[in-house]
Specification:
Oligomer: single chain
Distance between the termini: 38 Å
Largest sheet: 2 strands, antiparallel
Strand content: under 5%
Helix content: 25-40%
Strand order of the largest sheet: 1-2
Radius of gyration: 24 Å
Number of helices: 12
Order of helices and strands: HHHHHHHHEHHEHHEEEE
Number of strands: 6
Length: 376
């Protein structure tokens, strides 16, 4: 956000950043630069510098024979080009169809089954000295393998499952329950890319546990998990280019799935606003007070002393989650549209501690299409 505000109405500076960082070997850096550039283009007025900026982004992302597969990078690049088109800032060498899906890419090579088996054999023979490899293998196990790693199922598997098994040069399947793409292929690509990106098999690569984060992505993630996400962002792009999305419940097959459709975390460049200029000569940098929603909500009874914990742990009844759905800021009631929480028993009353991780999500739809209503 800070870089986006600094670039507001400075497309000339943004051009230099695009040319300097578009070939950076860390996709996280490229993603953030293009996000800031997209916000800059949205706020900029038509000018020669804006034309130059849009052209630089188009050349970096869409100018070659194939498009970068990373779905987040290509999304921000497409925002830049679409906004440039809206403002009449497209140069003559830009072809509109190239920055709109479906894109052209070359289907990647993945590890073979025998190569994956060799990695697993290597890890089993050196479990203490190859912990990073062990975490990578365990985390990416998919449901179609007969078991699953947490990330392999809840992050990679279900997103890959939003695509069907039919290639774009084949007739798409029209049924909403059409067979989905094989998530084991996605795993083989993620394993290959994580090692190509430089994951050291001998790293400890232990995650940092933060009780206030729960199941959400932590602010500092382990290196192997970062490489897994980069590889997934790329593989989703390849899938979008080469395979049909699965139909929705009405049998409609979208042209392509956006990062929002596959529920990837994105910063929205439309929401960036230029910070007002200050005329103050003496600035005092004081941390703002924390927002009211920073307090961790809990559905557990209060006070939650040891006797209450023993009673709760021994009970078969779960806590009432209603409090999580209707937080209050002291004056007004709000509604939780999406949330992930995690609570771990601080000191287990018994041999095994209890863990609670409720999820909430809200879906909006017309009442005429509702088949039923949940009793909650």
């Amino acid at each position: 956000m800070s870089l986006a505000r600094l670039l507001a109405h400075r497309p000339g500076v943004a051009v230099m950043l695009v040319r300097r960082f578009s070939e950076n070997n860390d996709p996280y850096v490229v993603e953030r630069v293009l996000f800031a550039v997209a916000a800059c283009v949205i706020m900029a007025q038509p000018s020669k510098e804006l034309v130059e900026l849009v052209d630089a982004v188009y050349t970096a992302a869409f100018g070659g024979p194939s498009v970068t597969p990373n779905v987040i990078i290509r999304y921000y690049a497409s925002v830049v080009c679409e906004e440039g088109s809206r403002k009449g800032a497209l140069s003559t060498n830009i072809r509109v169809e190239k920055f709109r899906p479906p894109y052209i890419s070359i289907w990647p090579l993945t590890l073979t089954n025998s190569e994956v088996e060799a990695l697993e054999k290597d890890w089993r023979a050196n479990t203490d000295s190859m912990r990073a490899l062990g975490r990578l293998l365990a985390s990416t196990v998919t449901e179609q393998m007969g078991g699953y790693g947490d990330w392999g199922r809840y992050e990679m598997g279900w997103r890959v499952g939003m695509f069907q098994s039919q290639r774009r040069n084949q007739e798409p399947l029209q049924e909403w329950n059409a067979p989905s793409f094989d998530d084991r292929v996605a795993r083989r690509y993620v394993l290959k890319r994580a090692l190509e990106l430089g994951l050291d098999k001998a790293l400890d690569d232990a995650p940092r546990y933060d009780p206030n984060v729960g199941r959400a992505r932590p602010p500092v993630e382990r290196l192997g998990k970062k490489y897994q996400w980069i590889a997934l962002h790329e593989f989703l792009g390849f899938l979008s280019d080469h395979y049909h999305p699965r139909p929705d419940y009405d049998g409609v097959i979208p042209v392509a799935l956006t990062p929002q459709d596959v529920h990837l975390d994105l910063l929205d460049p439309v929401l960036v606003r230029q910070a007002p200029r200050s005329s103050c000569d003496h600035l005092q940098f004081v941390s703002p007070p924390p927002p009211w929603w920073i307090n961790i909500l809990t559905p557990l009874p209060a006070p939650f002393d040891r006797s209450a914990r023993e009673e709760f742990v021994a009970s078969r009844e779960g806590p009432n989650p209603i409090r999580l759905l209707t937080p209050r800021d002291g004056n007004e009631a709000w509604m939780t549209l999406k949330g992930h929480w995690e609570w771990r028993e601080p000191i287990p009353c018994y041999r095994v501690g209890r863990i609670i991780f409720p999820h909430t999500a809200v879906y909006l739809g017309t009442s005429t299409r509702m088949q039923y209503r949940h009793p909650c």
